[in-house]
Write a sequence for this structure.
């Protein structure tokens, strides 16, 4: 017998051990995410997938679905919280989209559009985060890192290299490169690594392509992140 | 005979911006004819009025990079019922704010003393010149802002949608293809 929970009033079937997010996406419902990736265990850091389950706020990517639960996701309250989280992510780094090569293909930006984030609301931190252009093929612009650890996980668990790590705590947290010099050029990182292709924002950028695809003709210029993620899900199942 | 409705009064200015947002404003093309039926302009690069007076709507392009920007912005806030951050630089500082992680003195020395081709360069210190701030700030960090219209620049259609919503008394809404940060 399949078990199910209710997502915004609609029945969603799930298998044992599946998270609320996975089950919802599989059933064609969109719950947003940034740090979640279907090939890795849940990370639970960005909180964009926040839902109210049985009256409590939980991360949908890290919470196993339960029979009979009533889950609220696409409500003004939850979407408002998501907007607040996005605003915090934006002011915490240096996000100048007009000069970012990732613009139009960036998940953080696309979520800003999806949840109609018009203002930064908070005071900008303007942190100092020097770029690393040492590697011949790949540029690291730490200004835009959201600490999702997707590159850390991909490099360690798939590429078998452990090129990246997070260090520091709280407001001092930052991404580092595992080399004595701290430079990407002094690691065995390659542009063909999974870690070179997994960053949801504009930190790990391949040198060369630049603006070959012009602004206005990119992924999220053509469709919303909601549409794209649901389409990707369908294609992979 | 009924009197025609009072025209809304709009003021616009560019602080630490490049006038790109004003150019995009002109990009609403033939809607400009509709607009001048509904509004009249106070201080703006379009009128050459130098001081802002009481207005319904104030459009601010650019962030705040010097003392004069602060004065102009505060004057707009005092005079405008509704104040709008127009474009990326007003919203988050934009390109000028990319100097924020450098000491101001270093920026000035780089431009006025060490730039190739400059001999005996000096940092300008004429008292007429507004003093630069140590950091470039988006306008909401200096005054209260009612609405934000992002984009570099916001497109003509986005500006038109925003203004027509506002003039009609609706909460301006940019969604779908009209909301862009780039
Ligand atoms: S990483 Fe995304 S949100 Fe940040 S500046 Fe680039 S496009 Fe904008
Ligand atoms: S570099 Fe990209 S993938 Fe790595 S932690 Fe930062 S945002 Fe995530
Ligand atoms: S997607 Fe669930 S916390 Fe990031």
């Amino acid at each position: 017998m399949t078990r199910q929970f209710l997502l915004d009033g609609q029945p969603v079937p799930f298998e044992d051990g599946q998270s609320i997010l996975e089950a919802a996406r599989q059933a064609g419902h969109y719950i947003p995410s940034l740090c979640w990736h279907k090939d890795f265990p849940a990370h639970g850091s960005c909180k964009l997938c926040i839902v109210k389950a049985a009256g409590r706020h939980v991360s949908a990517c890290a919470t196993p679905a339960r029979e009979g639960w009533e889950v609220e996701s696409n409500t003004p309250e939850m979407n408002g919280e998501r907007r607040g989280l996005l605003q915090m992510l934006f002011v915490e780094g240096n996000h100048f989209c007009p000069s970012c090569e990732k613009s139009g293909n960036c998940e953080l930006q696309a979520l800003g559009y999806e949840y109609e984030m018009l203002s930064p609301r908070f005071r900008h931190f303007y942190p100092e985060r020097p770029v690393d252009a040492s590697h011949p093929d790949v540029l690291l612009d730490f200004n835009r890192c959201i600490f999702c650890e997707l590159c850390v996980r991909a490099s360690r668990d798939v590429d078998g290299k452990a090129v990246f790590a997070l260090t520091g705590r709280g407001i001092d947290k930052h991404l580092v490169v595992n080399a004595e010099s701290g430079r990407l050029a002094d690691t065995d990182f390659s542009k063909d690594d999974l870690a070179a292709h997994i960053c949801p924002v504009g930190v790990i950028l391949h040198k060369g392509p630049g603006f070959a695809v012009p602004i206005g003709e990119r992924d999220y210029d053509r469709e919303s992140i909601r549409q794209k993620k649901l389409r990707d899900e369908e294609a992979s199942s | 005979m009924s009197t025609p409705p009072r025209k809304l009064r709009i003021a616009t200015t560019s602080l630490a911006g490049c006038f790109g947002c004003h150019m995009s404003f002109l990009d609403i093309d033939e809607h400009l004819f509709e607009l001048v039926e509904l509004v009249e302009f106070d201080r703006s690069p379009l009128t050459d009025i130098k001081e802002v007076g009481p207005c319904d709507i104030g459009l601010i392009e650019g962030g705040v990079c010097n003392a004069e920007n602060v004065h102009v912005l505060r004057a707009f806030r005092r005079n405008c019922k509704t104040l709008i951050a127009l474009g990326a630089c007003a919203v988050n500082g934009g390109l000028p704010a990319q100097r924020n992680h450098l000491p101001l003195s270093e920026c000035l020395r780089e431009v006025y003393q060490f730039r190739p081709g400059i001999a005996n360069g000096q940092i300008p210190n004429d008292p007429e010149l507004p003093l630069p701030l140590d950091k470039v700030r988006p306008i909401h960090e200096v005054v209260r802002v009612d609405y934000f219209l992002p984009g570099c620049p916001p497109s003509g259609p986005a500006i038109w949608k925003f203004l027509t919503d506002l003039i009609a008394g609706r909460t301006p809404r940019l969604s779908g293809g009209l909301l862009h940060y780039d």
